[in-house]
Amino acid sequence: MMARILLAWELGGDYGHLMRFLTLARELARRGHEPIFALRELTHIDSVLRDEPFRVFQAPVWVAKISGLPQPIGFAETLMRLGFLHPPALTGLCRGWRNLVDTLAPKLLLFDYAPTALLATRGLGLRRVLFGASFSVPPRTEPIPTYRSWRVEPGARILEAERVVLAGANAALKRLGEPPMSRLADLLDTEDAIIAASEEFDQYPGRTGARYWGSVANLDKGVPPRWPTSGKKRIFAYVKPHFRDFGKVLTALRAIDAAVVIHAPGLAVNDVRTYTAANIAFSDAPVRMTDVCQGCDLVICHSGASTVESLVTAGKPLLLLPQHLEQMMTAKRVEELGAGLVADFERPSPDYLRLVRRLLDEPSFTHAAQTVARRHASADDPAVRVERIADRCEELMASEGANEPRAPLR
Q1: 126, 240, 278, 368 — which has fewest CB within 10 A?
Q2: DSSP 321-349
Q3: Are 339 and 369 in contact (CB under 8 A)?
Q4: Residue 300's closest CA among 359, 369, 255?
């Protein structure tokens, strides 16, 4: 029986969230279901979903700027920036999510980092699933682990942040007529948690009791790279134009004896002309990662979880340019594996030419990535993983008592 399935994304950027959803949505649609997207970011929708049949809605998201807060060290402090300090406004967002759910009447909800949607749909009698990279599925512990596993964070600050955020969430739940949560981790209570990553790439290392489904990255979406003829080796770079060291990275790449293809979404035409060289070509469209995995010697990117796992398990070394802590959490795992180098955004800019030369000239990085690739050689193909995730979705929709929503929605 055909079922409508809502895939909700509320926090984060880049293509990773959308590509994961797209891969699963295609499989669900092939089985006769109707996936519908509620997405935070619609800027790149046309380039990614132009030829796809799926309906897309703007997700209710927090747009106000919160000032006076330190950089977040954990999940609770991130929620502070999403309205969880302002119960009336948070309630308004929750009502927006509830109205969307009420209008679409899905049989199943999938959340790829959508904490407000999780809060809004508590008590509605709907089957709900966490789905995404490991960062999108934090451990359900008290307290929830902090982002920097590599250093000790102040325990009192962590506990106080969870207390304050829990109070804000419970105030919104009271306005919605729902019972309170006893701890912040209750926000993550769903029928299942599907971590679309492998254990060695878990951004929360040391997690226990988790099932890892492996990356489901859609590597075939995009255009083939058009490599310049100049250069002995090949480098693919996916770098945002607003990255603090964008110019420094491109200057280093011009000085390397390598053919370089760069995808820098939103880069001005004049800047494309400025940086194009005999060994550097730009791609306006996302590049097909299957070709990158097969044809390059080094990849430079911002540490998107699915991209990183796909590349390292294909044996490719990485230069990682994280722009925030979620990306740094992924970058640290690659660094631990010995498969790449990291430009720490909390430190002064490094010598990028030196880093690129090290990655191309020192074989240890490629050998480490190839060691990881051999460990994953017998792993399921991503298409098989997607089929299994779709199987799980169908099991949940068919389970006894599924979707007996309480009415009316408020």
Answers
A1: 278
A2: ---SHHHHHHHHHHHHHTSEEE--TTS--
A3: yes
A4: 359
pLDDT tens, position by position, 273-315: 999 999 999 999 999 999 999 999 999 999 999 999 999 999 9
Structure tokens at 14: 């880049």
Q: Nearest Cα to 303, choosing from 7, 9, 12, 3?
A: 12
Long-range residue pairs from 356-359, CB within 8 A, at least 24 positions apart, any chain: 356/235, 356/252, 356/253, 356/256, 356/298, 356/300, 356/319, 357/256, 359/298, 359/317, 359/318, 359/319
Instruction: Indicate the pTM of the whole model.
Output: 0.90
What percent of the chain shows pLDDT beyond 70? 96
| Cα separation, 101 vs 241, whole angstroms | 36
The answer to whether 21 touches 9, Cβ cutoff 8 Å, is yes
254-281 in b/e form (b: 16+ CB < 10 A) is eebebbbbbbbbebeeebbeebeeebbb
pLDDT tens by residue, 140-187: 999 999 999 999 999 999 999 999 999 999 999 999 999 999 999 999
* Identity at 368, one-letter amino acid code: A
DSSP 8-state code for residue 185: G
Q: What is the DSSP string of 33-84?
A: -EEEEEES--TTHHHHHTT---EEEEPP---SPP-SPPPP-SHHHHHHTTTT
Q: Rg for the chain (alpha carbons), in Å? A: 22
Identify whether the C-beta of residue 131 lies closer than 8 Å to the C-beta of residue 194.
yes
What are the distances in angstroms from CA 265 to CA 87, 171, 282?
36, 40, 10
